[in-house]
């Protein structure tokens, strides 16, 4: 991310993780002024952006934390940051999942009383698949888990925005 729209401007921030959702605010030639989920604004080259819609579960500190021993990680020694998909590997059952504090539940249906598919920690990034008009829910995919999230629990969608399957 650069301070201005061009290579002559200084680099302000380097993103090390793929899939982090951003909002494009303006365009200038091949440069895009973006804002991320933390409110950081700057210019990136259009080639660094992809058309796939993603979301992030807010709450992870920007510096992240080191991967725990035995924790799934893309590479050995990765620092788990705000743009890494973090799905708890095992939760004994729905009641235990619903008791977890600070985590977000991925549901089997667009209903908080439906089965819990996965428990997502702050910083999880996933793909948006469907956000129907007039609904407060979106269908998403996170590391192979497909389910539904209430719109209020993630960042990556404008208020009132709909997303139809492509």
Any descriptors?
mainly beta; 2 domains; four-stranded antiparallel beta sheet; three-stranded antiparallel beta sheet; 4% helix; elongated
TL;DR?
With 166 residues, the protein is mainly β. Helix content is 4%, strand content 31%.
CATH topology of the largest domain: SH3 type barrels
Q: What is the H/E string?
A: EEEEEEHEEEEE
**What is the H level of CATH, i.e. the homologous superfamily of the largest domain?**
SH3 Domains
Placed side by side, the strands forming the largest sheet appear as: 4-9-10-11
Structural class: mainly beta
Characterise this structure:
The protein has 166 residues and is mostly beta strands. The protein has two domains: 1-49, SH3 type barrels (Roll), CATH 2.30.30; 65-153, Roll (SH3 type barrels), CATH 2.30.30.40. The chain contains one helix and eleven strands; from the N terminus they run ββββββαβββββ. The chain has one helix at residues 94-99, and strands spanning 22-28, 31-36, 41-45, 54-56, 65-66, 79-80, 104-107, 116-120, 125-130, 137-142, 145-150. The strands form four sheets. A four-stranded antiparallel sheet has the order 4-9-10-11, with no helix packed on it. The two termini are 29 Å apart. Residues 61-65 and 67-83 have low confidence and may be disordered.
